[in-house]
Amino acid sequence: MRTRIHPLTTLALATAFLSVAPSPSIAQTSGPDDGTRTKSDRPVSDTWITAKVKSELATTDGVKSMDISVTTIDGVVILKGSQTSDAAVRKAVIATEMVDGVKKVDSSGLTAKQ
Predict the structure, then answer these.
(1) Is residue 96 within 8 Å of 56, Cβ to Cβ?
(2) What is the pLDDT of residues 35-67, one digit of tens each?
(3) Burial of 102 per CB tally in 10 Å (0-12, 13-18, 19+)
(4) Residue 72 belongs to a domain with what CATH number?
């Protein structure tokens, strides 16, 4: 079941994407998402990774993306904040790991409210 995204969340995501202009350093994929996509040899920028992680978190059911701070340094994504449960923390980590260019996820600063 998909939940509706709050208009302010949509505006924040749109602003984040507009501030990240495509450049030659951003990896691109081509082809449909049916397993036939090809990967580029070009590196993905930390800014692009951060924006993509924030977008993925915003569309992941059960994750309160506005309660998570995302920072990327050399492909290592650092998640800080709190979620309502351990399951939400796990979902956030899994969604982050699925983003192209993510080398490692440091979720030591992401906790579940008890």
Answers:
(1) yes
(2) 555 555 666 899 999 999 999 999 999 999 999
(3) middle
(4) 3.30.300.130
